[in-house]
Amino acid sequence: MKDLYIKHVAKLLGVAPWQVENCAELLVDGCTVPFISRYRKERTGGLSDVEVAEIKHWSEVFSEMEKRKASIIKTIGEQGKLTAELQEKVENCLASNELEDLYLPYRPKRKTRATVAVAKGLEPLADLLWKGRSRSPEADAKAFVKGEVASVDEALQGARDIIAERLSESAPVRESLRAVYRTRRVRSEVTKAGKEAPEAAKYRSYFSFNMPIARVPSHNLLAMLRARDEGYLKVDIDADAEKCGNKMYYDYCQAQGYPQPACGSEIRLAVDDAFKRLLDPSITGEVLREAKEKADAESVQVFGDNLRQLLLSPPVGQKRVMAIDPGFRTGCKVVCLDEQGNLLEHTVIFPHPPVAKKIQAITTVSELAEKYDIEVVAIGSGTAGRETEEFVRKVGLDDKVRIFSVSEDGASVYSASEVGREEFPSEDVTVRGAVSIGRRLMDPLSELVKIDPRSLGIGQYQHDVDQGLLKEKLDSTVESCVNSVGVNLNTASPYLLQYVSGLGPALSRAIVDYRSRSGGFKGREELLKVPRLGAKAYEQCAGFLRIPGATHPLDNSAVHPEAYHIVEKMARDLKVSMKELVGNAELCRKIKPEDYVEKDFGLPTVNDIILELQKPGRDPREAAEEFRFADDIHEIDDLKEGMELPGIVTNLTAFGAFVDIGLHENGLIHASEMGVKGMAVPSKVLKLHQKVTVRVINVDLERNRIGLRLIK
């Protein structure tokens, strides 16, 4: 990365340029974000995975910008118009809009009013007016009344068209106007189609909307732009045309010298035309796109935060699970899984109307629970979820059996996916969906990586934001979560393995194939026997893969093989075996980190090693806890203002948190109702799937909306 970009990114992230430079070099060398943040702290000054991911993002952005700059310089050079000054300006650009402004006058043009005027030979007249030297524009224009130019008025109009286009392509003019527009208000008003279409009612808050563009919340802007694209709203920026025109004319006068009065009036007409016809729509579009990019980034960040919390949800671990995908008319699909998530048996029960075979359903659940020694029951939280949970609690299962409500968002997507068909080719979609519900209770991370994150019902306006940016964020979040937890090399599915640092779909498949042939890995070094898995991939992935019961005691820890010799030295100095040292917190406390610092292994890495030795392979996730909704709340009609109820956070957005309180409709805790002075940032106050207590503050029966306040 060029020094120009390094300094910019360093300032953006609030870190030192050397940190950005070293991180960028590691990325070029093929290192991954998790590997760099975990095992190269000395090189980066301890940058977090979020900061490394940001540097990776900007490295890619500026790499593309370099290609664009080269193309622009080549094009202008071929026109014979490239000066040293212009080339320097292009090379020093950091923002794409500034770069495109510089290129605009040289961009190959389609037919415009200005190009037509140039073709008619009116450019010399435009130059005369532009320089302010004409005492009588009408008299000077007479010399151009010939050929395709029929009159003085036509000549002057053509000259003004040329000047208007010059103004619209001027980089200083465009940047000056952008600065003005960024301070103005964005307005939206309903269109005729919006007034007539019933489906436009959801946008009625924006039928007459006016707010400074810098203060418009991201969710409001994205909603307005979606409604605009659907034809229900007109959205613009209320730039003052007269003030903008005056500023443009004043700037022209400052740059060109004050023109002759008669010439000045022609210039002013060209300025007004340039603003109204060319600049206002163009700059409005640019500033709205700029605001949308900011809104996209905020929404993508919310989505990423939610996904991280969802993936790192507490697992119940390797338990024998009964999973139920609830339903009324079609019944409840029941599956039983062993500790590894393998399907043992499946059936359908009908505990609810209209079929209502309740006694038979009780018998079936009881017999299956006893037959497979079920330890936990996972019940999908969708349609009939609350009713099914109440039914199961009344079946009379053993007290040791814990019952959980599990989000089933995305289960149907998995059921019909290629992954679902590959795992259960002989089962139908209902069985696959129930299995997914059970497995995501056992280990949310391992199961949810099989599903497109956009199908998980989290975040806001996911289909309206930049899809490339969203994918980049979601992929990096999944990768970060998988590597922060670590993966069991001998049990992980290929869908989980592909997110391990340095691996991907092809290598993860090769690992699983090798594992099937060899009967499992005995140690990390055996990875080098996997076809196409070379030294670089091994370096990147080894520290994140765990092998319980491995020959080498550190192969089930986050200590990287490249640092095993440090642990060996620690054990020798303590006069114990490495096996005795691993997991012995008392012995680890006797280690002086500074005694083991080496050239490539500084104090941060040594401290990480010691922490890992105390609790090797520790899962950073919390333990799963049971939860029950209020017994007397089943319908929205049961709610009364002032009620305090237990709930589970199901989604976090920029404007608030949605909470399941056991009804078919989720309630909303607005950002202003979170017990924080002013407007809270929901993701800073709450976590996805957090258990909360809320107070009902309003109930809108007509629109099925429930307003809540956070109590604790």
Oligomer: single chain
Shape: globular
Strand numbers in spatial order across the main sheet: 6-5-4-7-8
Arithmetic mean of pLDDT: 92
DSSP helix count?
31
Would you tell me which CATH topology of the domain at 478-614 applies? DNA polymerase, domain 1
Strand content: 5-15%
Percentage of helical residues?
40-55%
| Biggest beta-sheet profile | 5 strands, mixed
The rounded distance between the terminal residues' Cα atoms is 48 Å
CATH class of the domain at 478-614: Mainly Alpha
Based on DSSP secondary structure assignment, what is the total number of beta strands? 15
Sequence stretches where pLDDT stays below 50 over 5 or more residues = none
CATH superfamily of the domain at 478-614: Tex RuvX-like domain-like
Radius of gyration: 33 Å
Class derived from helix and strand content: alpha/beta
Corresponding CATH architecture of the domain at 478-614: Orthogonal Bundle
